[in-house]
């Protein structure tokens, strides 16, 4: 949970936020059985925004982010992703899922497929991209995450950091307009964290809309343009990173920041 | 402080060969057979046991008589020496392999079917082979049916056309929705079967190229192989469907799968076979003569499909939830996620279990001898042992039957081990 310094200069000038709305959540509630996990969530994300979601364990961060591509179902309220409302209609769900990329804490690569096959599978089957084009695109993104030479290996032969970068490349091959990250670095060793964060920063510099659950406060400070703090299923505070870290308003936030930053 | 503790090696020690007591067969024998007193006793007892068995079996096999025409003649030739009477195998060879009713001048037909089976099975078993070979695999069941049963070629042709029509209907309609494709395919296939079946003249089989052979004339090891191959290849897809059905969110499908699996698993196979031979006739329309072979195939397939379904369910349960989520998050729909992500992994985990069921199924095909079908065991127990010439030749016949089954089952087991190695990509 250290404030891992990001060494390179980050070009924030390119990270333009447009007025166009990418995600609109209003009055959203979710229950697991009788347990009220998400309470009255209202959140608007514009295209090009980089949002970091922080909060103590069990506060509902993963649940929130998983509701955005219907990995979890919400019971009340409205979620509009990229102009399409998330309902129980499977057509809408599949459409949204193919527009929204997701990276998981444990990578979830397909172990029976090579790295290249992992990256070309969804474009070929979901987008009906010709195989040749899918392979070219996969190699392009694998180069971008700096592992083109591993293309014919299997996930089990790669280090954790490499696997997570493949997972990012795999999502990018679907040309998503929004990327969701659920603690992408918390299963990694420090030196691997850096390589994954570097990849994510590059993505941010290209103007990708990103929602990222992470404990990497250095990343939040330098890349995010909004930090959201959640506790007990509610959004407790949200602000620009400078304000959020230097001048937290709520007691809960202050306590959380002192625990996570001050050792 | 203490200078003598500090040590730096400046030269590397050159490698030297190990002492002779540490390598070679002597060392292996000492380590593995005579390492302690109990081990030594066990070794000696085992050697003695092997020796006694060999002292009985080797002369018995070596003195074997191959060319007499009855057991009494064997005894005369042997004149009191121990020796096997293998003549029963050479004299009844055809009956053991084909049963006693299959027309002798048609033996080439099942033989051809067996050889072609190798080509049909190859692309399924060894997936590095060109995918085009699967076309032959698809045609094979109809070809083999025609070869073995003979009669008019129109029958298998109409059956094949029905499947082709179903396939086309599915491809056309499944763009709209899976259900439309599924039911469209079923309707198209049945339409072809009913219309085509009506068009085949009653007398078509009478002057056909291959003389028609009724199912009750099949027998011998051929019948075991036919039942084994048919039932294994049918019960695998049915088992997969049942396993997925049991996991389904739809209560009706789930309920049907659970009831089917639990019921079939809870009933002895022999009961199902009796149902097939006696009672199933009541369920079909009275004037339809549903073939006994078909009825037995249905029962054995249902039985092993229930077991395979449970094995595959174990494989599905062993997959981490993240695999489903990753497939979902990439936008794959349910059939794609199952076919491309979930089943390849679940089936790989299930290989040992599936092979276990397949081997068991193959051996269980001998149970049909109980409902008076003359498979290998039925032939031995019935026509051969009951004959005056060979009454009393148990060891030779049953030993040979065991040997035939062993060869096939050992082959299946070796194949599955190769498959597991070939599919090992997780590098754990
Ligand atoms: N499938 C489920 N069924 C019931 N309760 C669940 C389920 N998944 C999560 N929960 C509960 O919902 C709450 C929120 O879980 P969530 O995974 O969203 O937390 P989180 O903020 O991501 O925590 P962490 O930082 O540990 O990942 C937790 O209290 C958890 O116990
Ligand atoms: Mg979480």
UniProtKB/TrEMBL annotation, chain A:
<dbReference type="GO" id="GO:0005524">
    <property type="term" value="F:ATP binding"/>
</dbReference>
<protein>
    <submittedName>
        <fullName>L-glutamine ABC transporter ATP-binding protein /L-glutamate ABC transporter ATP-binding protein /L-aspartate ABC transporter ATP-binding protein /L-asparagine ABC transporter ATP-binding protein</fullName>
    </submittedName>
</protein>
<dbReference type="InterPro" id="IPR030679">
    <property type="entry name" value="ABC_ATPase_HisP-typ"/>
</dbReference>
<dbReference type="InterPro" id="IPR027417">
    <property type="entry name" value="P-loop_NTPase"/>
</dbReference>
<dbReference type="InterPro" id="IPR050086">
    <property type="entry name" value="MetN_ABC_transporter-like"/>
</dbReference>
<feature type="domain" description="ABC transporter">
    <location>
        <begin position="23"/>
        <end position="257"/>
    </location>
</feature>
<dbReference type="InterPro" id="IPR017871">
    <property type="entry name" value="ABC_transporter-like_CS"/>
</dbReference>
<keyword id="KW-0813">Transport</keyword>
<comment type="similarity">
    <text>Belongs to the ABC transporter superfamily.</text>
</comment>
<dbReference type="InterPro" id="IPR003593">
    <property type="entry name" value="AAA+_ATPase"/>
</dbReference>
<keyword id="KW-0067">ATP-binding</keyword>
<dbReference type="GO" id="GO:0016887">
    <property type="term" value="F:ATP hydrolysis activity"/>
</dbReference>
<dbReference type="Pfam" id="PF00005">
    <property type="entry name" value="ABC_tran"/>
</dbReference>
<dbReference type="GO" id="GO:0015424">
    <property type="term" value="F:ABC-type amino acid transporter activity"/>
</dbReference>
<keyword id="KW-0547">Nucleotide-binding</keyword>
<dbReference type="InterPro" id="IPR003439">
    <property type="entry name" value="ABC_transporter-like_ATP-bd"/>
</dbReference>
UniProtKB/TrEMBL annotation, chain B:
<dbReference type="GO" id="GO:0043190">
    <property type="term" value="C:ATP-binding cassette (ABC) transporter complex"/>
</dbReference>
<protein>
    <submittedName>
        <fullName>L-glutamine ABC transporter membrane protein/L-glutamate ABC transporter membrane protein/L-aspartate ABC transporter membrane protein/L-asparagine ABC transporter membrane protein</fullName>
    </submittedName>
</protein>
<dbReference type="InterPro" id="IPR010065">
    <property type="entry name" value="AA_ABC_transptr_permease_3TM"/>
</dbReference>
<feature type="transmembrane region" description="Helical">
    <location>
        <begin position="40"/>
        <end position="62"/>
    </location>
</feature>
<feature type="transmembrane region" description="Helical">
    <location>
        <begin position="296"/>
        <end position="319"/>
    </location>
</feature>
<keyword id="KW-0812">Transmembrane</keyword>
<dbReference type="GO" id="GO:0006865">
    <property type="term" value="P:amino acid transport"/>
</dbReference>
<dbReference type="InterPro" id="IPR043429">
    <property type="entry name" value="ArtM/GltK/GlnP/TcyL/YhdX-like"/>
</dbReference>
<dbReference type="InterPro" id="IPR000515">
    <property type="entry name" value="MetI-like"/>
</dbReference>
<feature type="transmembrane region" description="Helical">
    <location>
        <begin position="393"/>
        <end position="412"/>
    </location>
</feature>
<comment type="similarity">
    <text>Belongs to the binding-protein-dependent transport system permease family. HisMQ subfamily.</text>
</comment>
<keyword id="KW-0813">Transport</keyword>
<keyword id="KW-0472">Membrane</keyword>
<feature type="domain" description="ABC transmembrane type-1">
    <location>
        <begin position="221"/>
        <end position="416"/>
    </location>
</feature>
<keyword id="KW-1003">Cell membrane</keyword>
<feature type="transmembrane region" description="Helical">
    <location>
        <begin position="107"/>
        <end position="126"/>
    </location>
</feature>
<dbReference type="GO" id="GO:0022857">
    <property type="term" value="F:transmembrane transporter activity"/>
</dbReference>
<feature type="transmembrane region" description="Helical">
    <location>
        <begin position="340"/>
        <end position="362"/>
    </location>
</feature>
<dbReference type="InterPro" id="IPR035906">
    <property type="entry name" value="MetI-like_sf"/>
</dbReference>
<keyword id="KW-1133">Transmembrane helix</keyword>
<feature type="transmembrane region" description="Helical">
    <location>
        <begin position="178"/>
        <end position="201"/>
    </location>
</feature>
<feature type="transmembrane region" description="Helical">
    <location>
        <begin position="256"/>
        <end position="284"/>
    </location>
</feature>
């Amino acid at each position: 949970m250290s404030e891992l310094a990001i060494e390179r200069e980050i070009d924030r000038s390119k990270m333009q936020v447009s007025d166009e709305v990418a995600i609109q959540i209003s009055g959203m509630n979710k229950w697991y059985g009788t347990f009220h996990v998400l309470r009255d969530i209202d959140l608007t994300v514009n295209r090009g925004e980089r949002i970091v979601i922080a909060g103590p364990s069990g506060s509902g961060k993963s649940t929130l982010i998983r509701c955005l591509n219907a990995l979890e179902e919400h019971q009340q309220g409205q979620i509009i992703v990229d102009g399409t409302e998330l309902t129980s209609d499977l057509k809408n769900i599949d459409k949204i899922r193919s527009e929204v990329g997701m990276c998981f804490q444990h990578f979830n690569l397909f172990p029976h497929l090579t790295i290249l096959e992992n990256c070309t599978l969804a474009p070929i089957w979901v987008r009906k991209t010709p195989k040749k084009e899918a392979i070219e695109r996969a190699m392009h993104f694998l180069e971008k995450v700096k592992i083109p030479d591993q293309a014919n290996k299997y996930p089990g032969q790669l280090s954790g950091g490499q696997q997570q970068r493949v997972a990012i490349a795999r999502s990018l091959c679907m040309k998503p307009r929004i990327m969701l990250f659920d603690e992408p670095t918390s299963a990694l060793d420090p030196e691997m964290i850096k390589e994954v964060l570097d990849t994510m920063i590059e993505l941010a510099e290209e103007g990708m809309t990103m929602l990222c659950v992470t404990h990497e406060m250095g990343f939040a400070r330098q890349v995010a343009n909004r930090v959201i703090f959640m506790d007990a299923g509610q959004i407790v505070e949200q602000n620009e990173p400078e304000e959020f870290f230097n001048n937290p308003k709520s007691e809960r936030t202050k306590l959380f920041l002192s625990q996570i930053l001050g050792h | 402080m203490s200078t003598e503790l500090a040590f730096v090696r400046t030269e590397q020690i050159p490698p030297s060969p190990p002492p002779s007591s540490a390598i070679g067969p002597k060392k292996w024998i000492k380590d593995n057979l005579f390492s302690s007193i109990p081990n030594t006793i066990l070794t000696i007892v085992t050697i003695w046991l092997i020796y006694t068995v060999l002292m009985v079996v080797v002369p018995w096999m070596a003195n074997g008589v191959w060319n007499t025409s009855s057991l009494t003649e064997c005894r005369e030739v042997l004149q009191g020496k121990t020796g096997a009477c293998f003549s029963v195998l050479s004299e009844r060879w055809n009956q053991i392999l084909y049963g006693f009713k299959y027309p002798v001048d048609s033996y080439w037909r099942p033989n051809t079917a067996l050889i072609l089976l190798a080509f049909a099975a190859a692309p399924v078993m060894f997936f590095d082979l060109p995918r085009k070979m699967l076309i032959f695999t698809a045609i094979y069941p109809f070809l083999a049916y025609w070869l073995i049963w003979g009669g008019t070629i129109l029958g298998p042709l109409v059956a094949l056309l029905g499947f082709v029509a179903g396939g086309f209907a599915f491809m056309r309609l499944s763009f709209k929705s899976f259900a439309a494709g599924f039911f469209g395919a079923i309707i198209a296939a049945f339409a072809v079967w009913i219309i085509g079946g009506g068009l085949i003249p009653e007398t078509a089989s009478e002057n056909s190229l291959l003389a028609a052979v009724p199912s009750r004339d099949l027998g011998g090891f051929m019948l075991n192989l036919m039942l084994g191959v048919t039932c294994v290849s049918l019960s695998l897809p049915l088992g997969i469907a049942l396993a997925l059905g049991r996991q389904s969110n739809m209560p009706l499908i789930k309920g049907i799968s659970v009831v089917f699996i639990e019921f079939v698993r809870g009933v002895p196979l022999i009961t199902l076979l009796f149902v097939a031979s006696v009672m199933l006739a009541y369920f079909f329309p009275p004037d339809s003569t549903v073939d006994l072979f078909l009825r037995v195939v249905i029962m054995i397939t249902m039985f092993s499909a229930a077991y395979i379904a449970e094995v595959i369910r174990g494989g599905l349960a062993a997959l981490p939830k993240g695999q489903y989520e990753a497939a979902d998050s990439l936008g794959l729909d349910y059939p794609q996620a199952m076919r491309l992500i979930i089943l390849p992994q679940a089936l790989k985990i299930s290989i040992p279990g599936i092979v276990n069921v397949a081997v068991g199924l193959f051996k269980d095909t001998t149970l049909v001898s109980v409902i008076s079908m003359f498979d290998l065991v039925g032939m031995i127990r019935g026509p051969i042992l009951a004959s005056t010439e060979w009454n009393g030749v148990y060891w030779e016949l049953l030993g040979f039957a065991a040997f035939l089954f062993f060869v096939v089952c050992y082959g299946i087991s070796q194949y599955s081990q190769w498959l597991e190695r070939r599919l090992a990509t997780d590098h754990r």
